Amino acid sequence: MPELPEVEVVRAGLAPALSGATITGVSVLDDRALTRHPGDAASFEAELTGAAVLGAARRGKFLWFPLASGRAVVGHLGMSGQMLLREADAPQERHERIRLIVDHPEHGELAVVFADQRTFGSLAVDELVITADALPAGWGTRDALIPTQVSHIARDPMDDAFALAPVRARLARTESAIKRVLLDQSVVSGIGNIYADESLWAARIHPETPARALSTRAVNRLFTEVRAVLEKALAEGGTSFDAQYVNVNGQAGYFAHSLNAYGRHGQPCPRCGRPITRESFMNRGSHFCPKCQQSR
Fold this sequence. Notes:
Helices cover 23% and strands 23% of the residues. It is α+β, with helices and mostly antiparallel strands. It has two domains: 144 residues, MutM-like, N-terminal (N-terminal domain of MutM-like DNA repair proteins); 125 residues, Orthogonal Bundle (Helicase, Ruva Protein, domain 3), CATH 1.10.8.50.
């Protein structure tokens, strides 16, 4: 599943083409791409045709495109969703579900294509509400307005308004394993399996360590590493293991070459040389070094 760095790469790629553009055409090719939309395909097409787009914003793994109408288009990439920029008359993409034609005063006509092989992603038109803390809602926007479908999502560690103190307090009263908490988007958003494993490896914390067992110093160290991992992954265009995640131009990220733990089962730990271990975790896997990340 695309995590924060991958979704931010997509947002940053879409922003110049969408900010100030007008949606002149909407084609829904597969209703499954509207699972989070409260209406049907006809209502989606009717509401967006002629709409003025103000920008592109993100919190955690959610994207949204604020509209001049006071509403927004909300996007979630799911497991394999892609948002691609193409020429307006470009042929249909493989697994294409929705196509928006936009007219930008500088870039002219473009197609914004939502493609999704596994159909877990979606687009929707949603209301905007004031953020709980009245601060800007996320990356790419200065407005304290967030879609209702995103309002329950916690801020992510790269957000200027992210506060570590309440997260520390939440961890101190949580018995669950620290990796499980990192994946809880109501505690901290944007972190998935890849970046949880990488951050815990960097902080030398075993993924099954109870959250409440971590000292203040350990939590501070962990979130320093979380931000460092996310920033490096973002600089390298995200993590691509196959063609499912690409940026808006169809290019893969290359952070996979920088991974220290995730996906490296049986390979030597870059720090101590002991083989990386993989254990089953929530229908996925946890990758860690049994020497550097000893359990308590």
